[in-house]
Fold this protein.
Amino acid sequence: MSAIVRFAPSPTGTLHVGGARTALFNYLFAKQTGGQIFLRIEDTDRERSKPEFEQNILESLDWLGFKFDNSQPIRQSERTAIYREALEKLISNDTAYISKEEISDDKKRGEVIRLRNSGQKITFTDLIRGEISFDTTELGDFVIAKSLDEPLYHFAVVVDDWEMKVSHIIRGEDHISNTPRQILIQEALRASRPVYAHIPLILAPDRSKLSKRSGSAVSVTEYREQGFLPGALLNYLALLGWNPGTDQEIFSLDELIKQFSLTKIQKGGAIFNLEKLKWLNREHLKLAGDSIWENIFTVDWPSDLRARVIPIIRERVATLAEGESLIASGEYDYFRTAPTINRTLLKTPETLAKTIILLDALAETDFTAPQIKTVLWPYAEEAGRGAVLWPLRMALTGKDRSPDPFTVASILGKKETLSRLRQITNNVE
Ligand code: GLU
């Protein structure tokens, strides 16, 4: 069966990672059933909805790589006439009525539209949580619109899902308590009931709800700015609440489409683990190849040097942004320009003369880290590792911490390595 699903964010804030995961689960389910996914902007709350939030949501969804089956999002604020017609229908068959009452604190009298609620027990089957029942008596005749032109949120959702022929509603479990109201509205409209799947919340490490207050980054934009790859973030979000039942942890979007299963989503809250996300990002960076790192360099890095430095950076950082700040900090500037060396820091510069002879014997094409190590190691064992390797590292980098000197020498190349070493020995003599 081809599913019809929707992702229905409210533009009252930037796209939260929880929202991104809801979009992902809907997307995966639509694609694996050969169905459709629509994007609907739920902006009935006119005060809290802001165009800049809608913009952020659209950009974030785009960055994550989602393609929706409607090229333009459906916007509830543009559908007043549709809701009005549905309200009129309910009023004319007396399943809803206009009620004159005090509507605000200042005792102003006005009108609202209420649904007649017989107070029946509502039971629905949730794909994740099983059977859920609610006694709706205490909801009374609840308000569904402030006026014919101002439907409330629940009413608009039900009309839209019906009109869009939504077959499955996959959303956060914070909406479970809204479901009985929405089912009562469906029944009044004689709309069919979609299948529900309420997914567990994302929790902060202390099991509180993941929020700015819990100190975590919550918006997709923040992860984007921190240099995470969209594919890594999606991979991570998929594993928050779902697992494939195998050891596989690294998934492309296509693999997720094949393997994801709504019914395997766990009921309990899923704890957000930044370290795991970083690990996945490293893995996705490895899969992405070297060209993705090109932009972390400033323009004055020659491209052949970039290619040789990238593997070192890739080992050290979890995100492109961390790589970018490493480069910006000047940490690796010694690859581009010979450092000025404080001679006293060389400690045992006298070993450099022999080091030069050994390295000079290596052909330029053999000037790789393992080969360099092979020719220097016996001498280092004989004269003392520190005595040989320390001045070598210092002469090449000017730093007491760096990648191992064999790697540094191989990146600099034979010519530059020997020139830096000779510069020192010539001056020492
Ligand atoms: N607009 C709601 C939200 O942002 C989603 C409602 C739904 O999926 O039914 O949480």
